[in-house]
Amino acid sequence: MTENLLTVANLSAVSDREDGVPVLRDVDLTLRPGEVRGLVGESGAGKSTIAKAILGILPRTVRITGGRIDFKGRDLLVMKPRDLRNIMGSEIALIPQDPQTALNPARRIGFQLADGLRLKRGMSAKIAEARALQLLADVQIRDPDRIMKSYPHQLSGGMRQRVLIAAAFAVDPQLVVADEPTTALDVTVQKEILRLIRRMQEAHGTGVLFVTHDLGIVAQICDSVTLLYAGKVIEEGPVRDVLETPQHNYTKALIAAGPRYDRPDAGLEPVPEAVFRELRQEIGID
Amino acid sequence: MDEHLLTATGIEVTYGKRPGLFGGKPATPVLHGVDIRIGRGQTVGIVGESGSGKTTLGRALLRLVDVSAGSIAFDGKNITHIPEAEIRPLRRRMQMIFQDPMASLNPRHTIRRILTGPLLLHELASDTASALERVKTVLDRVSLPAACLDRYPHELSGGQRQRIGIARAVLMQPDFVLADEIVSGLDVSTQAQALKLLKGLSRELGLAMAFISHDLSVIRAICDYVYVLRLGRIVEEGPCEQVFGNPAAAYTRALLDAIPLPEYDPGWLERKSEA
């Protein structure tokens, strides 16, 4: 049996801004090395909160009240800041949602890529630059030399996202957290980026936690999926099982609520109020 | 007589032609001769990626931007170059639902004021009481409680605000509604709610609608006919059945192939479109 890369167990958190409203309720989640797991849910479901908790970047208003996040057998929640710093950006990397704000607008791409390698991998400037150039080629950027010398604003959204994927995989992490990395992109570019993430992940054997609200993306890029509602895990399993034989009424209704270009009658039935009632009762809210 | 409610022919729009001492800013053509027809009661989708000119096209149809060539006719009347004073009476009949409902509702006004105000302005109601009656009927139709009336926009959820936007447009008893990316920020369930509502309303009221979106799946759910726009040109048009079932343009096929469906399809990610 392979050991889990990541085990989130009984993770609970509350929002101090909203009088202690629970934002995560006893969340369990596992990720094996090299596995891609989708973390899905509607807004407010807690998918981003989990991602932020793993990365240790929760806003101050969110307080963890219980549970653990084991990364390679060590609980990130009780780790010393110095140990965390060594892990973040090195063994755990992030592909952010907004490629616009994640890059320093005043620094050339080449500098930003090489900077991480010098800092996290102790490379010399010259070696780091050569490595950065190779990384840009790996993410299928055609003229890496020109991109190295460019500033972020000179690149398209898709190109910036490629750079950030290169940056995430640059340190050869074991875990990548991808936080809705394609929401700002056109569909044709989105497909290229999804393909790229999957290829990079396979080449490096990286475990990926893929946060998204789109079940279509989950179906096409993930091996397994965890569906959340109001901070609670509603359904979990291999992608094919969850999509083809969903167990929970909410999962069924959510799949049916999405529009599909191949079906004129899809996308017009919201999740029934009865299903939400059932959910709330199950979770114990209201 | 033209049986279409809205006809746009050869629309060209150019942005940013600014004269200046050093040559100024070069003009950027955004639309290069676009033809569009919208029948009475018909819902027409306009789909395209960013930079396709879909939003500009919508704005041109409502005369919110000036066209540099081409003509627009609304209900048989050429409105391409008529002065603002002559457009104003038509504004009630051509409504718009905005992408960001928060930005399109006055944050300092209650929902009551936001909805009754235009009714009185356009003299669709003789007094406040009768305006309020009509507002309550429409609120009920968009499944919002009357308690909303005393709320401010920020007190409502995104889905509720979007329904206020729909209610505001419908209250004007328009013939034509332009909806620009109005469901793109919403959760799937809220989105389905809005789409179902719009589809129902357009049927009940015989509304013609131009539905602008980057999302072909959403277009399929709500439109009868679709125009596919790319870099300011229409690359394909036709009834949804035909365009989605058997796309003629390579670009349309590429767009469709890029949409991930929520079903198990192991080859999808590596499958490439020729376009």
Helix and strand topology:
The complex is a heterodimer of chains A (286) and B (275).
Chain A: E1 6-15, E2 21-31, E3 36-40, H1 47-55, E4 62-71, E5 74-75, H2 81-87, E6 92-95, H3 109-121, H4 125-138, H5 144-149, H6 157-170, E7 175-179, H7 187-204, E8 207-212, H8 215-221, E9 224-229, E10 232-238, H9 239-244, H10 249-257, H11 273-283
Parallel strand pairs in A: 3-8, 3-9, 6-7, 7-8
Antiparallel strand pairs in A: 1-2, 1-4, 4-5, 9-10
Chain B: E1 4-15, E2 28-39, E3 43-47, H1 54-61, E4 69-74, E5 77-78, H2 84-91, E6 94-97, H3 101-104, H4 111-121, H5 128-141, H6 158-171, E7 176-180, H7 188-205, E8 208-213, H8 216-222, E9 225-230, E10 233-239, H9 240-245, H10 250-257
Parallel strand pairs in B: 3-8, 3-9, 6-7, 7-8
Antiparallel strand pairs in B: 1-2, 1-4, 4-5, 9-10
The main sheet of chain A orders its strands as 6-7-8-3-9-10
Please give the largest β-sheet of chain B.
Answer: 6 strands, mixed
Remind me, CATH topology of the domain at 1-93 and 210-275 in chain B? Rossmann fold
CATH class value of the domain at 1-93 and 210-275 in chain B: Alpha Beta
The succession of helices and strands of chain A, N to C, reads EEEHEEHEHHHHEHEHEEHHH
As a percent range, the share of helical residues of chain B equals 25-40%
Mean pLDDT of chain A: 93
The count of DSSP E runs of length 2 or more, i.e. the number of strands of chain B, is 10
Low-confidence parts of chain B lasting 5 or more residues at pLDDT below 50?
Answer: none
Using the coordinates above, name the CATH class of the largest domain in chain A.
Alpha Beta
- CATH-defined fold name of the largest domain in chain A: Rossmann fold
**What gross morphology of chain B would you assign?**
globular
Largest interface: A-B, 41 and 40 residues
CATH superfamily of the domain at 1-93 and 210-275 in chain B: P-loop containing nucleotide triphosphate hydrolases
Number of helices of chain A: 11
Strand content of chain B: 15-25%
Average pLDDT value of chain B?
91
Q: Could you give the order of the helices and strands of chain B?
A: EEEHEEHEHHHHEHEHEEHH
Number of strands of chain A: 10
Return the structural class of chain A.
alpha/beta
